[in-house]
Inverse folding.
C-alpha cells in the first residue's frame, strides 16, 4: 500500500486498519475516550473545565485593552474586540454542543486540520456529527486550543499575544522556593559528581527523575488556569511518594544509560536523549535540572528538548517560555538559581542542549500517525538513545486516548510507535492507564474513585520493542 508521507496530510479513515496490518500491529483498537460518555472525565472536562479556560482567555484579552491601544492605537482596540467575539463564539459552540468548524486562518497546518475534521465525520458516520461531546475527546480538546490560536491569528496586531502567558509566569514565580531548593541541590551534587561510585550515581538519577516526575502535577490546563505551583521543597517528599508510583521501570532506564556510559569509556558511544516537554514553570525547571545532571555526570552527551510551536493546553512549553525560563534563572538574585541559568544558557550556546518544535506536536493526531504525516520528526527521534515523554497529554497521544484495559501492555497501546526506547514520566490526570498488574486498577478504583484523574498517582513507564 502506498502511504502519503507529506507533513500536513492525515491518514484516511478508510486505510487506518490496513495501515495497522502493514505495520505489523493489531488492528483491533478500542473506542476513543469521548464526552458522549456522561459522567466520564472527558464529559466533565468539556462541560466544566474547557468553558472556564475560554472564559479566562476572554478576560485576559479584555484586561490588555489598554496595552493593545498603546501599541497599535484604535486598530489594536478593534482587534481586541474581534478576538473576544471569536473566543466568545467558540465558548458558545462548546456549551451548546455544536459541530466542529473548519479552520480559516491560512496557517500551514490548516489543510491538515480540515482534512482531519472530514475524516472524523466519516468515522462517526451515522453515529452523529463531530460535535464537542460526540467526537473523540483528544481531538476536541486539541481543536479548542487551535481555535484559540486562530482567534488571535485572524487579528494581526494580536498574532503573537499569548493568552496563557500571565498564568505561566505566575506559576513560575510562585514556585520560587521549590526552584531554589532543587537548584541548590543540583549545584551541590555537581561539585561531587565526578567522584560518584555507580551506586551513588544511580541513586541521584532516581531522585532527580522523581522530581521531574512529580513536577508534572503543576498543570494549568487541569486547574483551568488557576495557580498550580510547587510551594515546598520536592526533595523532602520523594520517599513518601514512592508508594504512589504505580509502574516504576527506572531499572530499564538506568541499565540503558549506564551501559551507554560504559561504551563511551571504551570509545564507542555518544549518548543522545530527547525530552518531549510538557508544562513550563516548575515542571520545566525540574526537567532542566534532570538534564543538567545527565550531562554533568556524562551519562548523556547531547539533549534535544521538544516543545510546542504555539500556546497549548494553557501551560505547555513554547520556545518563548523556554528562553524566558533560562533568562529568569540566569538573572535571579539567588546565586544557585543564577548559576544554573548561566550553565544552561551555555549548554544551549555549545549545542549540548537543543530546543526544537514541530507542527506535529500541536496536531490532533496520536503518535502512531507520526511516521506517516511527520516522517522528518520521526526520523529525528530515531537518532535518540532514549526519549522521555513528559506528562498527561503526551501519554494520551502515545496510547491513542482510547478505552484500553488497565492490563493491556504498553507496547500494544503504542500500536508500533517506537522510534527509539521511550519512557513516559506522568502523573495520572486522565482516565487512561495501561500496563498495570492484574487487579490493581480495580483495587485502586474501589479505594479511590478519582485515582485516574487526581494527579496523586504516577508512572515511570518504559518501552523498548527490542529489550530482553
Amino acid at each position: 500500500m502506498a502511504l502519503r508521507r507529506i507533513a500536513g496530510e492525515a491518514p484516511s479513515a478508510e486505510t487506518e486498519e490496513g495501515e495497522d496490518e502493514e505495520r505489523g500491529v493489531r488492528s483491533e483498537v478500542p473506542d476513543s475516550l469521548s464526552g458522549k460518555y456522561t459522567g466520564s472525565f472527558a464529559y466533565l472536562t468539556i462541560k466544566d473545565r474547557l468553558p472556564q479556560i475560554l472564559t479566562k482567555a476572554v478576560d485576559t484579552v479584555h484586561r490588555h485593552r489598554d496595552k493593545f491601544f498603546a501599541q497599535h492605537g484604535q486598530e489594536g482596540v478593534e482587534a481586541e474586540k474581534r478576538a473576544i467575539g471569536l473566543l466568545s463564539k467558540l465558548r458558545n459552540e462548546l456549551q451548546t454542543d455544536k459541530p466542529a468548524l473548519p479552520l480559516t486562518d491560512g496557517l500551514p497546518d490548516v489543510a491538515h486540520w480540515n482534512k482531519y475534521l472530514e475524516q472524523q465525520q466519516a468515522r462517526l458516520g451515522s453515529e452523529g456529527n463531530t460535535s464537542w461531546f460526540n467526537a473523540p475527546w483528544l481531538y476536541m480538546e486539541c481543536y479548542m486550543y487551535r481555535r484559540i490560536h486562530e482567534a488571535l491569528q485572524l487579528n494581526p496586531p494580536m498574532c503573537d499575544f499569548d493568552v496563557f502567558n500571565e498564568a505561566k509566569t505566575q506559576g513560575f514565580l510562585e514556585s520560587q522556593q521549590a526552584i531554589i531548593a532543587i537548584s541548590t541541590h543540583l549545584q551541590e551534587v555537581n561539585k561531587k559528581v565526578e567522584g560518584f561510585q555507580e551506586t551513588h550515581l544511580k541513586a541521584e538519577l532516581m531522585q532527580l527523575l522523581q522530581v521531574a516526575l512529580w513536577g508534572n502535577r503543576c498543570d494549568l490546563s487541569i486547574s483551568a488556569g488557576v495557580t498550580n505551583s510547587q510551594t515546598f521543597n520536592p526533595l523532602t517528599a520523594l520517599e513518601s511518594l514512592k508508594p504512589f508510583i504505580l509502574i516504576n521501570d527506572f531499572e530499564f532506564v538506568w541499565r540503558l544509560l549506564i551501559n551507554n556510559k560504559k561504551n563511551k569509556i571504551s570509545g564507542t558511544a555518544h549518548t543522545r536523549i530527547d525530552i518531549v516537554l510538557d508544562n513550563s514553570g516548575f515542571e520545566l525547571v525540574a526537567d532542566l535540572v534532570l538534564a543538567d545532571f545527565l550531562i554533568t555526570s556524562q551519562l548523556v552527551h547531547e539533549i534535544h528538548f521538544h516543545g510546542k510551536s504555539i500556546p497549548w493546553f494553557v501551560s505547555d512549553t513554547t520556545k518563548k517560555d523556554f528562553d524566558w525560563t533560562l533568562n529568569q534563572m540566569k538573572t535571579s538574585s539567588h546565586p544557585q538559581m543564577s548559576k544554573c541559568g548561566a550553565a544552561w544558557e551555555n549548554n544551549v550556546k555549545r549545542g549540548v542542549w537543543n530546543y526544537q518544535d514541530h507542527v506535529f506536536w500541536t496536531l490532533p493526531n496520536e503518535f502512531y500517525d507520526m511516521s506517516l504525516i511527520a516522517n522528518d520528526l520521526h526520523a529525528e527521534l530515531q537518532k535518540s538513545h532514549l526519549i522521555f515523554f513528559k506528562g498527561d497529554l503526551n501519554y494520551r497521544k502515545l496510547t491513542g486516548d482510547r478505552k484500553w484495559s488497565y492490563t493491556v501492555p504498553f507496547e500494544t497501546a503504542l500500536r508500533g510507535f517506537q522510534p527509539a526506547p521511550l519512557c513516559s514520566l506522568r502523573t495520572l490526570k486522565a482516565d487512561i492507564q495501561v500496563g498495570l498488574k492484574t487487579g490493581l486498577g480495580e483495587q485502586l478504583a474501589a479505594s479511590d474513585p478519582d485515582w485516574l484523574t487526581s494527579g496523586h498517582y504516577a508512572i515511570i513507564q518504559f518501552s523498548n520493542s527490542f529489550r530482553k
